[in-house]
Amino acid sequence: MTTRRSFLKTAGALSAGVATVGTVATACAVKDPTASNATGQGNDAERVRGFDRVLLDAVATAVLPASLGVPAIRTATDAFVAWADGYEPVAEEMHGYGYADVRYLPADPSPAWRAQLMALDLLAHRHGTNGFSTLPLAKQQELLGAVLRDQRGDRLPAPLGATHIAVALLAQWSSGPDAWDRALGARVAPGVCRTLADATHKPLPVTPTKTATVRTEPHA
Amino acid sequence: MITHSADIVIVGSGITAALMAASLAEKTTKSILVVEAGKPTTPFADRVKARERWRAYGESPWKQDHLDDQNATGNTWGFSPSMNVGGLAMHWGGVSPRYSPEDFTLRSMYGVGSDWPFSYDDLDPFYQEAEERMGVAGEQGPVSLDPRGKPYPLPPLPINYNLAQLQQWATKVGIATWSTPSAKNSVQHDGRAQCQRCDTCYPICPTGAKYSPDFTWDALVARKRITLVTETLVRKLEADPKTGRITRATGNRTNALGEEVTIEGGTFVLAAGFVWSPHLLLLSKSRVFPNGLANRSGLVGKYLAGHRNVNAYLRLPMELFPGINVQHSLVSKQFMRVPRSSRYLRHDLRIWESSVGREPRLRGDDGSIQFGDALMEDWQQRAKGATARVRGYYDVLPDKESALSLSAEKTNRFGDPMPNVSFRDAPESAALKEWQEEQLRDLFRMMAKAGGGEILRMENSANDLGQEHPVGGCRMGTDPTQSVVDAHGRAHDHENLWVAGAPAQPTASCCNGTLTFVAVGLRTAAAIAGAAG
Q: How many of the other CB atoms lie within 10 Å of CB of B515?
C-alpha cells in the first residue's frame, strides 16, 4: 500500500532531484563540486553534497562579521557545509500542539544554493572581472546587496527557509550560541545543556578576544 | 486470531494510562494488560542525537510515533496524532499546574458552565499522588491562591536571573508570581538526571530530567507487573446485551499482517484521551446499543472543552539575557481565584523571557542591506534591554454540540470512520469572548505601562483551530441522563467499563491540563482497585 507518507517522501525526493538537474547545470555532473575526483559520472539518485568552497569562503567573508576573525569565519563556514550536507529532505516535521496532519520538511535547498554561488561568479564576470572570489570585499558586498535587494529585512529566516545561500549562511551562523553570546555580550550559551544552579547568576561578560586579521584583498 | 486476557484491560498507553497502571499495580494483585495501537518511539539512548537534528532542521525527534491512517479531522488544535507508547506526553512540555478550587464549582459560584461531581479537596490527594509519581518540582504560591494538602515532592526549578528581574516587575505591578510547577527534576530523582536547562523540554528532553511515560512503562514491564501489547488497535468493545457488562475488545494488529485480535477482560479502562476514548465508544455500536456504548444519554463525544489565550510581547526597561532557560516561566493564579462579578472571566498568567525583537536582521534602520560588522553592531544594539512574553489562558465553557463525531468521508485501513472534531462555545461563553480578550489585553497594557515599557505585539488564539489542553467527550456527573460516567469514571451503563482522565472532565479550566488529567485518572484507578477488592 502506498501511504500518503511514502508518496510524499517519494515526491519530495523527486522534487529535489529535479532541482539538482534543472537548476545546477554543472552540479548534476559531479557528486561533490569540491572533490578532486569529481568526474561527472555520478549516480543521479545520489545526493550531491558540498559547495564550491572558494566561492563559499568568499561569500562568508563578505557577509559574516570580520571581527569574528578568519579562523572563526572558517569554522562557521565549515559548520554551514556540515549542516547543509546533513540535511535529510522531506523528513517528518515535529507535529504536536497545533495541527493534526503530518507535515514534511522541504526538498534539499543546496542545489539552488550551489547555483546561486555560480551565479555570483557569472555576475562578477559580467562586470568584467575574473570571478566573485577575486573581487575586493566592498565590491563583493555590493554585488551581494544587489542580489539580495528583495530579501525581507526585519529578521533573518530560519536557515532552511533562506532563499539565497548568503542569507542561509548568515542565518545558520546567527542561530548558534556563540553568535548570540557575542550579540548579548554575555556568556549565556542559549540551547546548550548547562547546570541548573548557574541559572540564578547574572551571566558573565564575554571575554574580549583579540580581533584576528581579516583579509580585505581579493583571493590570489 | 490472536487472543489476550487479563483482569484489567487498559486501552491506550499515554501519561494517564501509565500512571494509572503504576497505581493499579501497587493497589491490586490483578493482572493488567495495556493495549497500544502504535509502537515504542525514539529510545532514550537516541534522544541526544534526535534533539540535535530537531534543533538543526526542525526534524521530528519522535520516530514512528503515529499511524498514517489513524487521525482526526476538524478543529484539532491541541490534539496530537501521536499514537505510540507514551502518547503525546513523550513530547509534552512538562508544565504541571493544578486547576483552582473554583474550577470544580463554576455553576455554584459564578452561574456559568457546570459543577464537577467532586471538589478540589476531593482531588487534592490524587493531585499529590500524580505529582509524586511524575516528580513535579514546584513551590506553593500564596495559600489563598494555591491551596494544597502537602508540599511539592521536589524543590522548585530555580527562579533564574531573567525570571528574577521579571518577578520584581510583576510584584511592582501587583501580581504575585512563583516558579511554574513542572514535571522536571530540580534534583536527581527516581533514577533520572537533574534538569540541565537544555531548553528543549518541548519537544524532547535529552537527559530524562523531564518525566515521560516511557519511564513508567519500562519499570512496570521490567517488574513483569503488566503486559504491554503494542501495534494493536482496539476497534470495538462488545457488551452483554442483558447485563451490559463489557465482555471483550476486538481489533487488529497495525503491523503489515493486520491479524485479528480478541482481548477478554474483567474490567475495561479507556485511557486513550479525549478523541480516541469517545471514538471507540461510538464505533462500538450494535443492534442492542445502536448509538454506541455508554451512550444512553446521547452525550458520548459531546461537550468537548478547552481554553484559548491572549499572548503579548512587551519591551521593558531592564537587562535580560535571553536563553538562560527559555521554557521555564513564572506563573500566577491570581486571576483564577476571582470573586463573583457581573461578568465572568478567569484566566491564568505566565511570564517568560523572550528574544522577540532582539534578533539579528538583514536591513538596518535606513532599510539598506547590512553585512558583517555592521550587521553585528546593529544586532548588539537590538539585543540590549529586555523582552517579556506574557500569556493568559481563559476558559471556554463548552456547548453540548462541541462534539466529536464519526467522519462520513475519512476511514482507516480497516474501514472504520475516523473522528471529526468540532469545538463550539456555549452561548454564555461566546457572548463574553470579545470582552474577555480585551480585559486580557488591558491587563498586558497596564503591566507594560507600570513597568515603563511598551507592547511590541499582541495576538489571540485563532478562533477556528480548536482549543488547547482539550477534554470532554465522556463527561462525568451524577445524573445518567446528563453524563456518560459517574464521579469516579465508571460508565453509567456498563458496570465494568471506566473512562479515565481528560475525556471524563466536564471542563478544562484555564491552565495546562495534564496534571489534572492524571489526577482524575488516579482517582479512577483508586475506585477500580476498590471495586476489584
A: 24
Determine the Cα–Cα distance for residues B533 and B531; give it in Å rounded to an integer: 5
Quick one: chain A helix, strand, coil %, rounded to 5?
50, 5, 45
Nearest neighbour of B360 by CB, restricted to A87, A91, A156: A156
Give me the residue from A160, A184, A194 closest to B58, CB to CB: A160
Is B410 exposed, middle or buried (CB count within 10 Å of its CB: 0-12, 13-18, 19+)?
A: middle
Cα–Cα distances (Å) from A174 to B27, B315, B379, in that order, read 54, 22, 10
As a whole number of angstroms, the distance between CA B127 and CA B99 comes to 10
pLDDT at residue number B186: 98
Q: Please state, in angstroms and rounded to a whole number, the distance separating the CA atoms of residues A213 and B405.
A: 68
With CA atoms as reference, the chain B residue closest to A186 would be B321
Q: Evaluate the CA torsion angle B160, B166, B171, B177 in order and state its sign.
A: negative
**What's residue A47's pLDDT?**
74
- Nearest one of A163, A176, A207, A164 to A63, comparing CA atoms: A164
CA distances from B149 to B125, B140, B153, B380 (A): 7, 10, 12, 48
pLDDT exceeds 90 at position A36: no
With b for 16 or more beta-carbon neighbours within 10 A and e for fewer, the B55-74 pattern comes to bbbbbbbbbebbbebbbbeb
Nearest CA in chain B to A187: B321
User: How confident is residue A209, by pLDDT bands cut at 50, 70 and 90?
Assistant: low
Instruction: Give the separation between CA B40 and CA A103, rounded to whole angstroms.
Output: 21
pLDDT of A96:
73
Within 8 A of A65 by CB-CB distance, chain B residues are: 372-373, 375-376
A126: contact with B, CB 8 A cutoff: no
Write out the three cell numbers for A45. 539518485
Q: What is the ipTM of this complex?
A: 0.93
C-alpha cell at B274: 479525549
Which residues 94-123 on chain A approach chain B with CB closer than 8 angstroms? Answer: 94-102, 105
Amino acid at B341: S
Q: Which of residues 184-203 of A touch B (CB under 8 A)?
A: 184-186, 188-197, 199-203
> What are the distances in angstroms from CA B3 to CA B40, B96, B174, B264, B265?
21, 38, 61, 8, 11
Q: Contact at 8 Å (CB) between B501 and B521?
A: yes
Rounded distance, CA B27 to CA B43, Å? 29
Q: Which amino acid is at B86?
A: G
Q: Which residues of chain B have pLDDT under 70?
A: 463
Is the pTM higher than 0.90? The answer reads yes
Distance CA B182, CA B135 (A): 8
- Chain A residue with minimal CA distance to B80? A96
Cell of B97: 499546574
Nearest to B473 by CA among B276, B281, B301: B301
Predicted confidence band at A101 (pLDDT cuts at 50, 70, 90)?
confident
Helix/strand/coil percentages in chain B, nearest 5: 30, 25, 45
In this structure, the dihedral spanned by the alpha carbons of residues B184, B190, B196 and B202, taken in order and rounded to 10 degrees, is: -40
